[in-house]
Description:
- The structure is a homodimer of 347-residue chains.
- Chain A is of the alpha+beta class and 347 residues long.
- The first copy, chain A, folds into two domains: 281 residues, Malate/L-lactate/L-sulpholactate dehydrogenase, NADPH binding domain (Ribosomal Protein S8, Chain: A, domain 1), CATH 3.30.1370.60; 39 residues, Hypothetical oxidoreductase yiak, domain 3 (Wheat Germ Agglutinin (Isolectin 2), domain 1).
- Chain A is built from ten helices and twelve strands.
- In chain A, the strands form three sheets. A seven-stranded mixed β-sheet of chain A has the order 2-3-4-11-5-7-8, sandwiched between helices. In chain A, strands 6-10-9 form a three-stranded mixed β-sheet, with no helix packed on it.
- In chain A, β7 and β8 form a beta hairpin.
- In chain A, α1 packs across α2, α1 packs across α10 and α3 crosses α10.
- The two termini of chain A are 15 Å apart.
- The N terminus of chain A is likely disordered.
- At the A-B interface, β3, β4, β7, α7 and α8 of A face β3, β4, β7, β8 and α7 of B.
Amino acid sequence: MSDTAPSTRRTSPVAPASVRVPIAELSDLMVRTCLAAGLNHRAGRRVADHFLTGELRGKPSHGLAKFAFESRFFPLRQGPPEIVRQRGVFTVVDAHREIGPLSAEFAVTAAIERARRLGVGLVGVINTQRYGVLSTFTEAIAAHGLLGIAANTSRAEAVPAGGASAVLGVNPLSFALPTLGEPLSADMGTTLAPMGVLWEHRRSGNPLPEQCFVDAEGSPTSDPHAASSAIVFGDHRGFALSLLLQTLTGSLFGFPMGSDVDSTWGTGYAFIALDPTFAAPDQDAAAANTRLAEQLRAAAAADGTWRLPGDRGRALEAAARTNGTIAVPGPLLARLSARSAGDFTSD
Amino acid sequence: MSDTAPSTRRTSPVAPASVRVPIAELSDLMVRTCLAAGLNHRAGRRVADHFLTGELRGKPSHGLAKFAFESRFFPLRQGPPEIVRQRGVFTVVDAHREIGPLSAEFAVTAAIERARRLGVGLVGVINTQRYGVLSTFTEAIAAHGLLGIAANTSRAEAVPAGGASAVLGVNPLSFALPTLGEPLSADMGTTLAPMGVLWEHRRSGNPLPEQCFVDAEGSPTSDPHAASSAIVFGDHRGFALSLLLQTLTGSLFGFPMGSDVDSTWGTGYAFIALDPTFAAPDQDAAAANTRLAEQLRAAAAADGTWRLPGDRGRALEAAARTNGTIAVPGPLLARLSARSAGDFTSD
């Protein structure tokens, strides 16, 4: 199965005109798309909320555009997800090609259940469609007072700094800490930019961000049609982290790794929940995390040069929800409208 | 308790003359130091082997110099380490100020035992002396066919890129994957250089590596006497990873975090073992990891610009062991000799 965007070269890399659209209307378009794919309203709402959150948090490559792209595959779902093995803290889920956010929610529930019983739950998911931002799932774990971690791999699309040969996937990581208020969450690719940026820029013809992608010879390029792989962040340290995530989403669950990840359906996902009351029943981890977050916020305010993970996204989301509308490129709105009318074949 | 090196400014930052010393002799000096601190020969040998491995793998700040520094505190040990709580996959160890590598070995054994029973073992250690490189412990886990992960924190000594206010510790991370041969291991600080480099350069007066440390105002400096904090790698992504490690070595076990880490004894350590046979009993994780490592080695050889984690260190160690001697700065050799004669008070 090919899930790459077509590489037709556009001659005019000018940003298309945007229109301001009420958030509720965008949500409605996505919900109706889900209904057309056979979901009930409640599930459709959860899928729509997931991608909307990515959009509102300032990650458009994981928001509406990703919904428009991924929803092509919604009719392929054979779900619901199924637990195919469970032993100790481990659970393995065959998602039967379920829509990504629904597969992830299923895994989150299983991880929480095991963590409550044994202190930790590790859930591996395979054979699923994809999702947008990971942090909505780790935050769902943290909302139960647990430390949540999520990661997934992709086909071999990431090269270490200076390299040309992709073996590892782009391997994003998210975690969320329970606090006395909203979870403190982080959501990061282990590449300097997600592959979604490459797909979208191939569509628009706009140049890629500099020094984030390489061509087949390993030369950095901003040409979305020449670029083939994303550069891993943080030199050898970032590469080591990506390697760890590759195995946590791979051999730990018997899932493919490296060149053996040859399709969406063979891509591994991992969801982890950890219960801090097991090791420290007399202490309040949420209070301790809140205290740490307060120290970090005070330091960030004093320095004025850095932010806590997640803070920018939450601020953007709050502003957008207050405003009630967001700017959407015209062609994207047209794609969403077509999907909502049951068109799952046009690009 | 203060465990920082004295900040006496040396006027002559010239590298002291080195002498080549047989490895066996260096090991003997360290073993005799351990005997003088009350260890039996077998335990002393393990401590010596640990720090020697760091030295031979090209991490002198975690090798002989760290042994010379840390061994000042060997007589403070009140060990042996003790399991003070165990529930589900979690174990909490009070190390009773045991010498670092021995505390870590105790934790590794406990982590493996739980992983064999439940799929995962998570061991938190507090009230311990410090060790050198983490990878000797994760490799010990991987030698049992398990995925090994280890991390620890430190006092608040790390600032995000562009920052001045340290809240997080330097938070090193190691992991080791079981393969059909030697474990594939990585060992990395989440700062661009370890604080050990700062302590040693304060001693020698040599300039620090550029762009790795900042002074109290957040200005990068190579002056070891002006520098106060280490810069976190990988911008916001590296900072997010450091934050995750802070909680895995902190609130997950009820251990201090941020400014509450105010001494060596209040510094948290985490050791994790994961058994891949729980989720995938019919597959061979070591074979899968070997296949991934082979793909990575082929890619690295084709590119010629990057290496696998751990490969450089292993090559250095093999070359040093073949040679049989290594170069040791004269003053360091004198310190090791004094320690081996039972001098735990001189610096």
